[in-house]
Amino acid sequence: MLMKCNSVPLDVSSHDIFPRLQPHFHSWIKLYGSTFLYWMSTKPQLVVADVELIKEIFTNKQGTFGKAKFEGILKKFVGDGSVFQQGHKWLKLRKVADHVFHAQSLKEMFPAMVEKVEAMLKTWKSYEGKEIEVYEEFKHLSLEIISNSVFGSDHTTGKHIFDMLDKIAYISFLSYGKIRNPIIDKIFRSSEEIEADKILDELFESFIRIIKQREEKVKTGQSDNYGADFLGSLLEGHLNADENARISIHEIIEECKTFYFAGHKTVTSLLSWSLYLLAIHTDWQEKARNEVAEFLGQENPTTENISKLKAVGMIINETLRLYPPFPVLQREVTRKTRLGKLNIPAGTEVIIATLAVHHNSEVWGEDAHLFKPERFAEGVSKATRDSMMSFLSFGYGLRKCVGFNFAYMEVKIALAMILQRYRLTVSPNYTHSPVAIFVLRPGNGVQIMLHPL
Ligand code: HEM
């Protein structure tokens, strides 16, 4: 079903992507309703697209719906960081992340984000009046920005580390979907696995080098702390006298991998889809540009004026609804439980069907497949009857995305600065082929025509 759907591009202005990206879920929901079970090789997977049941899962406080674990190269790539942890280990890592990505720290990161967008836009001058492929542009931009906030002053080494992670991402992509035999896999390692392990050894060495350099600076009095960036805060945790709260080097490395994955591919996807949608829906492009002109003029964004961009915020929310970077969220049932009327055995994987909910006309209305940012005019909480559970782009509850304010800020800055300079239309070379490999992204990039204002 997937191969058939993916073989033809969609109409360039169609946002009806659910039947294309998840044709099996689309037809099974029609046949069996919004909750059904199927087998993924030897694993039972319960798909849940019912908002009431999703609420039960997210608000469960007993840890019954734990984080699903990845295996093989995928685990090596996405890491073993806080996203996949539970209990005490999760809490100590989450505390560090909450501290680094809270409102005050974000204000400090703001000028660096503006600077990186400005640098990108300088290179766009050579594309004026021509076509530019923005997915690759945004990949570099978001890598620069997340690398800067995680590694701060060690930004160049950080970038090298993220380049290595990019290689592992590619290797994981190559091995993704291959049927594995657990017995044979234990005896023979695949060439991808050998390559991934080589890169991981190199990564480990790079991290140890940075950590040693920072420790040395503190020891010799050149610095009185380990750095105000995310790595610095993790290092503080590594040297914590309380053994229970201490963060190991392995955990630091896994957490940096997590942030690379979580904070880079997601934002690239959101930025790319936002620009595509603005280029298609020129009425909203004009609205957003007028708003930017009113509050920013030709000035660079500041933390004060960016918060006034209401229409830009609505456009971002509508982009996240139609093209959520994570089309599903996964959980694993840790002990026998009840969900609605169902008895569920331990070990069942639960798939929260974000894309299905976001495109459900019973939840969002008959116009669910249309781009209508006005639905967010009163904010997310008033967009539908039960928006907090129907708008799942950043998850919900205790495990809600730690970087969601960071992501909004980065995307708002980039869109505002682009709108100040360019009118955008879609290039005739663009083919609308969304794909979901880890993250929902454009299959052949997003080709945009840049018209200087
Ligand atoms: C458009 C951008 C982003 C989207 C759509 C997104 C989406 C999500 C979602 C859906 C979750 C919850 C996963 C679950 O419940 O299983 C999550 C968790 C997480 N995100 Fe994001 N994210 C984005 C950007 C970021 C950024 C920029 C960072 C880092 C700066 C980040 C770091 C994290 C972390 C660490 C978690 C795990 C939280 C926990 O389990 O405690 N994300 N994200």
From TrEMBL:
Residue numbers binding heme: 401
Keywords of this entry: Heme, Iron, Membrane, Metal-binding, Monooxygenase, Oxidoreductase, Transmembrane, Transmembrane helix
A Gene Ontology term for the protein's cellular component: membrane
Keyword presence, Secreted: no
Matches recorded under InterPro entries: Cyt_P450, Cyt_P450_CS, Cyt_P450_E_grp-I, Cyt_P450_sf, Cytochrome_P450_Monooxygen
Cell compartment(s), UniProt: Membrane
Species classification: Eukaryota, Viridiplantae, Streptophyta, Embryophyta, Tracheophyta
Protein name, per record: Cytochrome P450 CYP749A22-like
Cofactor: heme
A GO molecular function held by the record: oxidoreductase activity, acting on paired donors, with incorporation or reduction of molecular oxygen
Record PROSITE patterns: CYTOCHROME_P450
